[in-house]
Design a protein that fits this description.
By secondary structure, the chain is α+β, with helices and mostly antiparallel strands. The relative contact order is 0.14. About 30% of the residues lie in helices and about 25% in strands. It has three domains: about 5-120, Rossmann fold (3-Layer(aba) Sandwich); about 130-150 and about 220-349, ATP-grasp fold, B domain (D-amino Acid Aminotransferase, Chain A, domain 1); about 160-215, ATP-grasp fold, A domain (Dna Ligase, domain 1, 2-Layer Sandwich). The chain has helices at about 25-35, 90, 110-120, 125-135, 135-145, 165-170, 195-205, 255, 270-290, 320-330, 335-349; strands spanning about 10-20, 45-50, 55-60, 80, 95-100, 155, 175-180, 190, 210-215, 220-230, 235, 240-245, 260-265, 295-300, 305-310. The strands form three sheets. Strands 10, 11, 12, 13, 14 and 15 form a six-stranded antiparallel sheet that branches.
């Protein structure tokens, strides 16, 4: 039972955003949206911004949502900076942390382990699922062990000296995709269309990761399917979204976060049998990775087969994000209701 709710008070929620990853701006956007939409009659709110040096700033939200981009300005509502090892004032009386983080430190199990250690419940998956799902190479092995299909792949880098540029060209051809294993929001990835661009991408991405994932292009229909653990203990897949990027060769960062950058159709206009297959794959991925609370799995249907691309354990919560769109398509659910479910599931755990 939440500390304040025991006495009939509101649930105290820390909305955590920012962090050192390449998805910093996306996280601030998600966090701002969450703060603006949480029901003030149910929750006492505190904004917690982690800067790129992993230092914490916090501000109680009593009126208008503070400018989360201006957290370090003197004279503003935010207090800090505070080191994670010495910031009790950030977490005192906190009933639950709403994680609006993405990428390194936020989605890879680091903040989850920290919150477990200090005894603060949080939305989304635990340490194991977060760490495994964040690593695109490790998660592939689990998908395959669970009977899910993945695009043909290679790993290039320090730990895989057997993989050469010529070997990649022979196995995957062009175009092919290159990804840092622990990146999200379509950051730190790219498409190689010839030998020159392949070598350039490998050199660029090796600055951020020891090993690079290389995947064969699968042409087909792109889907994304969210999964929610409900407060009553049930787990359900949300309506699949069909994604059609506009002006991009694939669902890249601009297609994801620019208004009009892609056409995202929900419910997807496909035959019921295929949509049921997409939902089943999302549920299986959720359980294989031991996810909790929420996940969103991206996949592509081509050559009469459904291929799993990756599972996101802290889906974006911006105004253009896929999870809120899918939730709205399911029984007309509102953004506020989605936030309530995520918080209730965190407290139940």
């Amino acid at each position: 039972m939440p500390k304040r709710a025991e006495n009939g008070g509101k649930i105290s929620v820390n909305v955590v955003m920012g962090g050192p990853s390449a998805e910093y701006e996306v996280s601030l956007n998600s966090g701002g949206q969450v703060l603006a939409n949480l029901d003030r009659d149910k929750y006492d709110l505190r904004a917690v911004v982690i800067n790129k040096d992993k230092l914490l700033y916090h501000a109680d939200v009593n009126g208008a949502v503070p400018d989360v981009n201006g957290f370090a300005e003197s004279g503003g509502p935010f207090k800090g900076p505070l080191h994670p090892s010495d910031c009790r004032e950030v977490w005192v009386d906190c009933d639950v942390a709403f994680l609006a983080l993405h990428g390194e430190f936020g989605e890879d199990g680091t903040i989850q382990g920290y919150l477990d250690a200090i005894g603060v419940p949080y939305t989304g998956c635990g340490v194991y699922a977060s760490a495994v799902a964040m690593n695109k190479i490790t998660s592939k092995f689990l998908y395959m062990l669970g009977g899910l299909s993945v695009p043909d792949y290679s790993v290039y880098g320090v730990n895989h000296p057997e993989t050469s540029v010529d070997g990649i060209m022979e196995k995957h051809g062009f175009p092919c995709f290159l990804k840092c294993p622990q990146s999200g929001s379509s950051r730190l990835m790219g498409r190689a269309d010839d030998r020159e661009s392949l070598i350039a991408l490998l050199n660029e991405l090796r600055e951020s990761a020891d090993d690079i994932l290389v995947e064969t292009l699968v042409s087909g229909v792109e889907f994304s399917c969210g999964v929610l653990d409900m407060p009553d203990g049930s787990t359900r897949a949300l309506p699949p979204i069909e994604i059609r990027p506009k002006g991009s060769a694939f669902f890249d960062y601009n297609a994801k976060y620019t208004h009009g950058g892609s056409e995202e159709i929900v419910p997807a206009p496909r035959e019921p049998e295929l949509l049921a297959q997409v939902e089943d794959a999302a549920l299986r991925a959720h359980k294989l990775l031991r996810c909790y609370g929420v996940s969103r799995t991206d996949m592509i249907y081509g050559d009469s087969k459904l291929y799993i691309l990756e599972t996101n354990t802290l889906p974006g919560m911006t105004s253009t994000s896929l999870l809120p769109q899918a939730f709205r398509a399911w029984r007309g659910g509102t953004y506020k209701e989605l936030l309530d479910i995520l918080i209730a599931s965190a407290l139940k755990r």
